[in-house]
Amino acid sequence: MADYVPIRTPGAALVSQASATITGGQLVAVSGNGTVAPTSAATAAFLGVAAFDAASGDKVTIHSVGEHELAASGAIAAGANVIAAAAGAVATIGAVTDYSQVVGVAVSAAASCCWSSVAACGGSRGSTTRPRKSRTRSTTRPRRPGSAR
Fold it and tell me: What pTM value is reported for the model?
């Protein structure tokens, strides 16, 4: 049997080309063949959070797991499922029933003007929301191998 090496390893940062101007900390989604752009609405094509600012055509690193500070588009309650929103922000899932669009779970509440921390939601997707001024830190810890779920 031939050896097989995955294209990407879960938990590792991804690198892609920006198809639009990206600001570090924005949620990004697939925008074309090998390209990403800030999310503009709920989508199942999100990849993660941009690590730094990138101009269109530049390479950008994307963090796809963990806890992240993301801009909140509307009020978000702690524990709420969040989805991608305009300008690379996140919003509460609300009446949407397409759970493939959930990017994570809010670890703490956020107002519509503030940042929110979202804990990873399965696979390689996740984000975190928290108020910008409170700087309350919530973290998720990986489970130890063999530990009870």
Answer: 0.72
